[in-house]
Amino acid sequence: MNSFPFWLSIAAALGAVAGTTLHPGIPEIVIVWAVVAGLYYATRNMRRPSRAS
Q1: Structure pTM?
Q2: Structure confidence at residue 38 (pLDDT)
Q3: Using CA atoms, how far apart are residues 53 and 33, in angstroms rounded to an integer?
Q4: In a 10 Å sphere around its CB, with 0-12 CB exposed, 13-18 middle and 19+ buried, how is residue 47 labelled?
Q5: Rounded to 5 degrees, what are φ and ψ at 50?
Q6: CA–CA dist 20, 40 (Å, integer)
């Protein structure tokens, strides 16, 4: 269950279902992408231990 292709296919399937249900336009897709990318990088930075100077 930790394989990248498995999670990528799940994300693609959920995106396809959401796309056919909601009919989003380009601005909505860009906003959602920016929010998801921001959350990803924020959680990645919080998980990484800070270097002691």
Answers
A1: 0.60
A2: 94
A3: 35
A4: exposed
A5: -80, 145
A6: 25
